[in-house]
Amino acid sequence: MLKTFSLGGIHPAENKLSAGKKIVILPIPEQVSVPLAQHIGAPAEALVNKGDVVKVGQLIAASAGFVSSNIHSPVSGKVLKIDDVVDASGYKHRAIIIKTEGDEWDESIDRSPELIQHINTVPHQIVEKLKEAGIVGLGGAAFPSHVKLSLPPGKICDILVINGVECEPYLTSDHQLMMEKSEEIVVGIRILMKALKVEKAVIGIENNKLDAIEKMTALLAEHPEIRVQALKVQYPQGGEKQLIDACIGRQIPSGKLPIEVGAVVQNVGTAFAVYEAVQKNKPLFERVVTVTGKSVKNPSNFLARIGTPMSFLIDAAGGLPTDTSKIIGGGPMMGKALQSAEVPITKGSSGILIMPEELANRKPMQNCIRCAKCVSVCPMGLSPYLLMLATSKTIWDRAEEEKIMDCIECGSCNFTCPSSRPLLDYIRLGKGKVGQIMRSRTK
Amino acid sequence: MNTLTISPSPHVHSGDSVKKNMYWVIIALLPALAASFFYFGIGAIIVTLTAVLSCVIFEFLISKYILKTEPTIGDGSAALTGLLLAFNLPTYLPIWIIIIGSLVAIGIAKMSFGGLGNNPFNPALVGRVFLLISFPVQMTMWPTPILSRFHYFGLTPEIIDATTGATPLAIMKEGVSSGIAHAELMHRLPSLTELFMGIKGGSAGESAAAALLLGVAILLYKRVITWHIPVSVVGSIIVFTGLLHLYDVESYAGPAFHLLTGGVMLGAFFMATDYVTSPMAPKGMIIFGVGVGVITILIRVFGSFPEGISFAILIMNGFTPLIDKYIRPKRFGEVNKPIKA
Ligand code: SF4
Ligand code: SF4
Predict the structure, then answer these.
(1) Residue pLDDT, tens place only, A29-45
(2) Does ipTM top 0.90?
(3) Helices (H) and strands (E) in chain B, counts
């Protein structure tokens, strides 16, 4: 039986145009700009100065605090400057700009293609290693992995949940990675299990990726402690709360983290990066990025160095289509519209989606007709119409009562509303305000 | 290159629209419309056309000249209100009365509250109930199906006498109150098959249960509505009348009779399910539906009107804000299984 999460959900057109396209190693651009804030938490602190010569994989910015992450040079060459550049957020942030010369890797990285199955490292060393290698969640949020693996005192974890659902339409990077690097991913999962000291793991994969389900299931025959859970195609199944509910039937209470129900979630891409960091001593400086869109000539999956300008990837996929009207970093449901194609790829970039004119604009908003469709699709069981109303009338206590902070910003309500109401725009605004009020109360 | 559009996520939309929903409801009403044309002929055509046209025209005029907003008649909701109003009227009703009903439905029940989405009561039902109270004679003159097909203009008392009859519900009500035995009454009423196919006196749209069932199947299939309201209305009527029938077979008709007569099908499938005036949470919808079913039967069996579904829906419309306030959808993470360590 296919499982899925218990409340709401939608089924947007999948449009997986780049499905089955082999991961192509992208050439190295002439210049990269590596942002210091690529992850959730404090931006890293630059360790290099203008004029310094760096190698691929060399630490160039250090984690600044517990929730932060190291950053390694994605190329070899000379640091041109450290400057403010516009990143995916639309604002200017600090970045290290490196002019590429050759492709000289740090000697400590094992570049052989050989698969290393045996795990020598002990749990606390694993966490240390991931911290050193700058591993963050590659599903999009880019939360530092070592933080997720350091359980808060008193909490027990009994299962590791691996996210292989890739529920965003268009994106295929995780799918392709499961097809090409399945053995490495399994080792990565075993490393994560060892770090967490858990006996069980489950990989959730949606039923539109039958080949990946088959491949992983076959591989896992030797590892009965890890099972594959085939899931019904349903957005937002990749949300942590939805994934845990779908795979193991536990619901995280409002305002709590997965560890509350004994689970830790990691993405398949992260599992692969974990393998490379621990077994191959390779820090995180490249990742798989899907470049796609209805008018894109060759929708592709690229292995690209962090800091590569998006325009470079778009050119490799056949160039920017003439009817381009929107460039999105990420998928169509939760991705961000970008100001320019020069924004660099970061650790959290799962895809670049190019939208033609006719898809880029929203329809004008009409009155709410109280159709309850937003209520029925909300995976958190909220009443989006009411949250929008409370926000527009600035009734913050009502918004809080209605659990506005539970909203995972999946966009299902916006997607569904027949009156094209910008529900999530208002809810985001309301969340900001209510969050502020709640914080000021605890102070 | 064009300038890039910057907007917050999500960047895609389902393509659903108010218009699509309204037109699907209209499409779902077409089988019943065809049945009404077949049974009531020229009268049904005139009543429907008048109601639809006057609703659309009133909405246009009011939004353009009184509210001074962009007219919204394109979304199909005014046409739908007109169609539903027509379905609730007897087919000998004079044109001028239909126009008054449309004005009440659109002008008072809908536009004075701010247009689509803001009206607390179902506009078509407000129009109907207003007419029923203002013009009780004309509103209860029920043409007989087939026989009345070619009459509308130049009705003489003879034609009216020959082509009208009481509705099954009225026969039942009369009969029970004057103490006629149940078996005898059943004899005077159309058979259940006839009721199902619509061969009985009544308003234009409520006649053919079969056509209305087809319509609701379309709405459910296209996910315009969910099952909650129709099932709870019909279910509560079955349970309530079933219990009464078991209690006293002689005085109370069974569930099949109640479901197939009057406006239960039309009301449960097309009027109670109106988005604007019904609750938002699934549990709320069920409470609403049960309320409609129970009140309908209370009015039919114990009240002074033979039919009660219009009143029942309007009463429950009034309770909708209250239901919405207290019945919230089920939230994620409310139920929690403890972890087995
Ligand atoms: S964006 Fe928030 S309110 Fe809207 S459906 Fe998703 S969780 Fe619910
Ligand atoms: S989906 Fe849109 S129109 Fe329907 S209830 Fe929600 S906000 Fe209102």
Answers:
(1) 999 999 999 888 889 99
(2) no
(3) 15, 0
Span from the CA of A402 to the centroid of ligand 1 (angstroms): 12
Residue type, A348: G
Neighbours of B184 (CB within 10 A): 9
- pLDDT for the residue numbered B336: 53
Is any atom of ligand 1 closer than 6 Å to the C-beta of A44?
no
Cα-based distances in Å from A142 to A41, A135, A263, B340 = 9, 9, 18, 30
In angstroms, rounded to a whole number, what is the distance separating the alpha carbons of residues B91 and B188?
Answer: 23
Q: What is the CB < 6 Å shell around ligand 2?
A: A 368-374, 384-385, 416-419, 421, 423
Output the pLDDT for position B340: 46
Which CATH architecture fits A1-20+105-361?
A: 3-Layer(aba) Sandwich (3.40)
- Is the Cβ–Cβ distance between A347 and A306 less than 8 Å? yes
Q: pLDDT value at position B200? A: 67
Q: Which residue, among A21, A4, A347, A18, has the nearest Cα to A205 in the 3D structure?
A: A4
pLDDT in tens, B264-296: 889 999 999 999 999 999 999 999 999 999 999
Q: What is the pLDDT of residue B201?
A: 67
What is the secondary structure of A389-426 as a DSSP string?
HHHHTT-HHHHHHTTGGG-----HHHHH-TT---HHHH
The closest residue, in CA terms, to atom 1 on ligand 2 is: A417
Provide the token pair at A154.
């008193």
DSSP state of B77: H
Q: Which residue of B has its CA nearest to A367?
A: B117
Distance in angstroms between the alpha carbons of the first and the last residue of chain A: 48
Q: Least CA distance to A254: which residue of chain B? A: B333
B38-61 tens-digit pLDDT: 888 888 899 999 999 999 999 999
Q: Which of residues 256-315 of A touch B (CB under 8 A)?
A: 256, 261-262
Indicate the domain borders of chain A: 1-20+105-361, 373-441
Q: What is the pLDDT of residue B250?
A: 76
Ligand 2 geometric centre to CA of B311 (Å): 27
Q: What is the Cα–Cα distance from A100 to A79, expressed in whole angstroms?
A: 9
Of residues B248 and A206, more confidence is placed in A206
Residue B2 has pLDDT above 60, yes or no: no
pLDDT at B154: 67
**What pLDDT score was predicted for residue A237?**
94
Q: What's the rounded Cα separation, in Å, for the pair A206 and B56? A: 47
Residues in A touching B273 (Cβ below 8 Å): none
Residue from A361, A370, A389, A402 whose CB has the most chain B CBs within 10 Å, to mutate: A370
In this structure, which ligand is nearest to the CA of A370? Answer: 2
How many other β-carbons are positioned within 10 Å of the β-carbon of residue B67? Answer: 13
Q: Is B82 helix (H, G, I), strand (E, B) or coil?
A: helix
Give the tens place of pLDDT for each residue, A130-146: 999 999 999 878 899 99
Mean pLDDT of the B182-186 span: 70
Of A158, A333, A381, the CB nearest to B12: A333
How many Å lie between the centroid of ligand 1 and the Cα of residue A384? 6
What whole-number distance in Å separates Cα of residue A40 and Cα of residue A142?
Answer: 6
